Amino acid sequence: MATPIEVSYVDVLAPAMSTADYDALAAKLWAAFDRVRDTSNWKMPINALIEVKDAEELALIDRAITHFTGSVPTVKRRKDGRYRIRAAGYYMTIGS
Fold first, then answer.
1. In a domain, 53, yes or no
2. FRET label pair with 69: which of 53, 61, 87, 95, CA 20 to 30 Å apart?
3. Is residue 50 part of a domain?
């Protein structure tokens, strides 16, 4: 019989990283989130129409929205090449 392995969700979701690496990631996430957030209140729903240079940038924006608001964005590419990005936002997902 195999011995169960205890794994903390912290070990899975937030593997050890240096402070410098964390700060660099946080800066990237904030810059990506800043492109789509409501400028009057970042906790409000997201409804942005933006240009995206590549799939990597789009993935970073997706990750940033989930990181800051807990909501999962919907992303639709328009005929003009821009992307409509919507998400419930922090208030609707987390609460206060």
1. yes
2. 53
3. yes
Write down the residue that tokens 């609460």 correspond to: 95
> Which residue type does 65 have?
I
Q: Along the 96 residues of the chain, how does pLDDT read in single tens digits?
A: 555 555 444 455 556 778 888 888 999 999 999 999 999 999 999 999 999 999 999 999 999 999 999 999 999 999 999 999 999 999 999 987
Number of domains in the chain: 1
Residue 23 domain flag = no
State the residue for tokens 């990005």: 85
What is the largest distance, in Å, between two alpha-carbon atoms of the chain?
58
Residue type, 41: N
Residues 60 and 28: beta-carbon distance below 8 Å:
yes
DSSP one-letter string for the chain: -PPPPP--HHHHHS----HHHHHHHHHHHHHHHHTTS-TT-TTS-EEEEE---SHHHHHHHHHHHHHHHSPPPEEEE-TTS-EEEEE--HHHHT--
